[in-house]
Amino acid sequence: MSNFFSKDHNNIPKYALKMTKQKGIRMRVTARGELVVHANPFCTKEMIDKYVERHLDEVYFKAKVPTVRLFGRSFQVKKIKGTTSHVTTCEDELIIQAKDEASMEKVFQQFLRANAKDVLCDISEMIFYRFQEYSITMPKVLIRKMTSSWGICHPETNSITLNAELIHYPVEFIEYVVCHEFIHLLQPNHSPVFYDILKKVMPDYKRRIDLIETNNEKQYLM
User: Fold this and answer.
1) Contact 111, 87 (CB under 8 A)
2) Residue-range domain boundaries for the chain
3) Which of 2, 46, 94, 204 is most buried (most C-beta within 10 Å)?
4) Measured at the alpha carbon of residue 26, what is the angle toward residues 74 and 4, in degrees to the nearest 5?
5) How far apart (Å, rounded) are the C-alpha atoms in residues 153 and 99?
6) What stretch of H or E contains 97?
7) Residue 4: which pLDDT band, with cuts at 50, 70 and 90?
8) For the segment 162-192, what is each residue's pLDDT rounded down to a tens digit?
9) How many Å is the maximal CA-CA distance in the chain?
């Protein structure tokens, strides 16, 4: 367990700290394998470090169990061999059934692609209604995996491309990304006008950005 998380010079496991209004301290391992601690501003670093040391074994155990995050919610992955192939969710479990391990992975990836397409397109259509007073038409929505962007706007073809990995993040954050790209159909850069439109169509956009937990993720919003 000591090798699972890297440690600082005080032998405390390294973690990303996220301030919250909730009482107490809690922590979790993100989909990227990073240890994230949520604490309110009244918690001192000493209190947080002690909490991390005390509860690390529990978090480590949970991290060893295969999990997948869908729309911000974590599911434990359960694999079952069977003659039919399908993926279902039941409470906090995601159940993958197929004839063998290779087939399970194929079925799971098909499940992710289909859900990413359906949900991201539905969200895009709903967000479009926030732009009724602006001179844009509903853009074509493309979806693919990307390594350094949550979304890309293509004004010349009236289309946007969304990162398929968004399927793992909260719906409210996905709505922000879609809104961000829609505004680029009107404003090509992050000008004051861009943010004026953003504040108007999505006043709580800053809260939505904070739904993602690490700076590595947030950098893709620039």
Assistant:
1) yes
2) 16-64, 69-108, 115-221
3) 94
4) 70
5) 41
6) strand 93-98
7) very low
8) 999 999 999 999 999 999 999 999 999 999 9
9) 57
